[in-house]
Amino acid sequence: MAEQLILNTSLDKAERYKTLVPQIEALVSGETDVTANLSNIAAALKQTMNFFWVGFYLVKDNELVLGPFQGPIACTRIAYGKGVCGMSWKEKKMMLVPNVDEFPGHIACSSEAKSEIVVPAFKNGTVALVLDVDSDKLNDFDQTDALHLQEIIEITEKFI
After folding, report:
1. What confidence tens digit (pLDDT) does each residue in 121-131 have?
2. I need a labelling partner for 82 at 20 to 30 A (CA). Which of 23, 46, 88, 103 fits?
3. DSSP-assigned letter for residue 112
4. Domains, the chain
């Protein structure tokens, strides 16, 4: 298991992801505890990509419940189909939102969040959790984020 990240902040976003993804895979390799792995993934993403907020919501008793995260305090529970996270769960797909204020039913856990990307992870064909990433800048996420966050979710799906 890797215990520290090798970071080069001078790299562009795509190169930082390309450096980060294999390090995340090494970080969780051999560890079976879901909470430990999700915690380290959230910390690695926050540290490397400098996101405003990054974390996981886990499906429990037909709602999303806050899991490991990095950033300001967050909403503890999100109903099915509500907000960006709940809609990602319901639609079983990634949601990339350039301006959260224009998303119908957006849940403002922080007024500083301006854009958001949410990626669901599946276990036995059912959404088990979502990775939620917020930015304090408008239109901060693109297909580079979508591609590499999906890679991280695929790593996550191996241990959930």
Report:
1. 999 999 999 99
2. 46
3. T
4. 13-156 (3.30.450.40)
State if pTM tops 0.70.
yes
Mean of all residue pLDDT scores within the chain: 93
Residue 128 is predicted with a pLDDT of 98
3-class secondary-structure state, position 107: coil
Kind of pairing between the strands at 126-135 and 53-60: antiparallel
Query: For tokens 């119908």, what's the residue?
Result: 104
Which segments of the chain are extended strands (E)? Answer: 53-60, 63-70, 77-79, 95-97, 115-123, 126-135
CA distance 147 to 160: 20
How many other C-beta atoms are found inside a 10 Å radius of the C-beta of residue 58? 19
Tokens of 73: 């305090």
